[in-house]
Amino acid sequence: MCSTTITKLLKLSLHPHLFLIQNCTNMTQLMKFHAHFITNGLSNNTLFLSSILSFTALSPNGNLTYAQLVFNQINSPNIFMFNTMIRGYAYSTFNNNHPSKAMPFYVKMLQYGFLPNNYTFPFVIKALCRTKDYIFGEALHCSIIKFGYILDLHIANSLLHMYATFGVFSNEVLKVFDEMPERDVVSWNVIIDDLSKNGCFNELLDAFNEMCLYGVEPNSVTLLVLVSSCLKIGDFGLGKLIHLYIIKRGIEMSENLGNGLIDMYAKFGDMESAEKLFDGMQMKTVFSWTSLLDGFIQKGELERACSIFNKMPKDTTAWNVMLSGYSEAGDMNSAETIFRAMPDRDLVSWNTMIVGYSQNKKYLKSLEMLTEMLRFGLEPDRIALVGLFSVCGYAGVLRIGEAIQSFVEKLNIKEEEVEVALLDMYSKCGDPEKALRVFHPILRKSVLAWTNMIVGLAMNGLANEALMFFHQMRDEGINPNEITFLGVLCACSYAGFVQKGKWLFNAMSKVHGITPRFEHYGCMVDLLGRAGLLKEAEMFIQDMPEKADAGIWGVLLGACRMHGEVQMGEKIAKIVTQMDPYHSGRYILLSNIYAAENRWLDAEKVRKKMKTSGIRKTPGFSLVEMKGEMHQFIVGNR
């Protein structure tokens, strides 16, 4: 169409230019039309300018910067134009523009004398939700009341959502909700969802029942929140009742609700029901497949999981689930194969490998994975750093740990979990002074930080200091947990503080309401055993509320070895080997007891029994740092 024809059409009617703009597919076309309209004296038409703004501010192919330039040239913008710009910025990305730029347009609109309408407020609220501007949000709430829009259901729902997004579920949210003359399913969904996020599950169920009493029919969003809440509180029975409710009420099974139910059944281990739901789905998403995959992995059915993995469409999450499955099963060879086959890897992939090798005591491989990760230009995050400090602690490679600490300081990472992992590393590497240097600057010391410091001091033989920290922790109002008591009981054991240890053990349940676990009983047996109170230790085991396991009896066997108690050692060894016949350490302890008393024939008999039973001692190994590289040496290597 020639230029004169376009001009004539535009002069005859306002519609053709709307047609041209509405059919633009990119900014290049729009700018050509815009230039043509300007040169033909058509740039001041309100409808024309509104259309230009709509495309540039709202279209996925538009340009908000260009929209801003156009808006700035308008002498008398109307409320539609203001709303268009507010809406454009409210939904804009954080990269090139920012939702916060919507608020100045709202203020400017008021300055021009325009009253906001029922379109204005939802757009401004959207911007506030994305910027978390609580102060402006409260001011806007007052304006909504002032201009009489609080009775508008859509705006009231937007307000509810805004306060919920701010994370201030309290009187403000309930006040808005209670003052609403009309509530629909969206209103109730906001309340129910926020109760779920804040862990108020009893109140959530009350709200759901009240919603039904008011005759508001729950939808798939409502029920998805309920299903997710059942997972959070671990109530499988309630989850099944909700599923039954969905079936009986004939509620439409949306894609998200179907996926949520599959995920629920899979996480509770009911894979038969999960598969039945999965097979009945018309549209199976990657999430549906991944939920099923994760369910079989959590049940330890790796072959079944592998079969599903080979059939399904794969995203990075699915690959990571499979990677995690092999890692948790201790099959790091298969995990490595999966890792190498991944088309794309994210931080979760690298973290899984680093932590997986660490948990499976393959510390050298864990450190190699870190080196490779850095070569790819990736920086370890909190999860990886915690895993790496754990590796350095167990492997005793202090120099590498210090290098990672420098990296953490360079990035100014101040997360407590990372700091605690760092002090734990120094403790395990035998440097409690550096652990204390990490501990003291922590601003808000939680029970985790205190406990790790107490345990670290105890394992380095600083029993008095560990107990001093325990009392200081109590003075600062921090309640000890189960692990804290393991630390102080170990400290008492190393220092021979028998009476103090007994008092602390009794205080666990009587003062702090903590039920002792087998580990605590083991500490007490070790405490009594080191002090030579072997008979008392045996009686202590026999008086336990639950039958002692081989580990606790093994501690007493070690004490018999320490004090040369052959007769008791023989008796305890018989009990332990019956309970755990393939643990090499128990046989070696008994053999050493005989050897210490020069009973070489008896010692040899024990060794022969180990050999004929196929029981082998696990070889020890050391990691040695040489010229910046790690080398693993196994006992017996030359």
TrEMBL record:
Q: Where are the PPR repeats?
A: 184-218, 315-345, 346-380, 446-480
Report the GO molecular function annotations: RNA binding
**Keyword Repeat among record annotations:** yes
Question: Where does the source fall among the domains of life?
Answer: Eukaryota
Q: Which GO terms describe its biological process?
A: RNA modification
Keyword Repeat attached: yes
- Give the record's keywords alphabetically: Repeat
Please give one Pfam family short name. Answer: PPR_2
Q: This protein is called what?
A: Uncharacterized protein
